Fold this protein.
Amino acid sequence: MRTPLPVAASIAQRPGFGGHAWAFLQYALGFRELGYEPVFVDRLSAAMVGPEHGEEAATRIAVDWFRDVMEFAGLERSSALLLDDGASVGLGREELRERISAAPFLLNVMGFLDEPDLLEAARLRVFLDVDPGFTQLWRELGQADLLAGHERFVTVAGNLGSEGCDIPTCGLEWLTLRPPVVLDRWPAEPTQSRTFSAIGSLRGPYAPIELDGQTLGLRVHELRRFAELPGRTAADFRFALDADPADSRDTELLRSNGWELVDPRAVAASPSAYANFVRSSGAEIGIAKNVYVATNSGWLSDRSVCFLASGRPVLCQDTGLGDLVAAGKGLIAFTTPEEAIDGAMSILGEWERHATAARQIAEDLFDARKVLGALLDDLGVR
């Protein structure tokens, strides 16, 4: 019998967003590769479902989505979706509590699981920060404390705690973690294309943060700086962009400069469709949230590692990536439009060399077995 290892995160509340689901499946499936039995824990409340279909219909859509994703990942017998009325989809609450208590730790992404009896059942509560800057500054500014009740703290901000990173540690010791990718699920099938693709939200669910007279903003604030890229390169730029109709001025700015904007729910409506979207690209164009850039966080997207593993070069905005981009092959970082243009031309001119290097970077630095194995060692549980 494998030792259970619970991962708590949100998938059900975003039906039809295959990339969002993959961000958390990498952890569960990575732990499975290390010999554990992952237990995926999610929750769904009435406040989380969208109003466009009505509460009952929206809940049904979310539940069906959760079931489909768990079946895709082979987690249908090792997952639980907790509902408002005390019911659950998948594992019952008592069985879930038993599995949590038998595990070496509970990995709680952004503190998403907040039910006291389940948290208390865990031997060790480990907070995983996947939105660095927001997590810590909310606490420092007294706006929200997601970290309370946890004993160990992990972040994907590679520079957190280092000199030059402006994200506060909140007086805590942080372990840094590279975003993992399950290599077997992302085979390298390089087919050259001139299309640089991106997928993500224009703003996301969070508001900008005001700190000491400085506004730490969102992806939209960085995208405006690089809107002219398509017209200044020989590449095509495609963005599966989740944007509100109220942001029509920004989406029109992108379109008028040559960006092809598509609905992420149309091109990545399932985990497998998301993988197809990545494989249909020649490379990734990664524009980060302003808060990641301004704080020199060292953040790299969980989407980028999917591109790398698939043998697709990554051209991404520099958030203080340092040695990760030292070689200048496969993963190229930029800070200015001119550097982005040079990077795009390098990838187009030597695509095969960059594609080969991209897969090698994924194998060397982001293999889930290595990344999560190191986490187990750092936590002292392996």
Q: What stands out?
A: The chain has a mean pLDDT of 95. DSSP finds 14 helices and 16 strands in the chain. The two ends are 16 Å apart (CA to CA). Residues 43 and 82 are 4 Å apart (CA to CA).
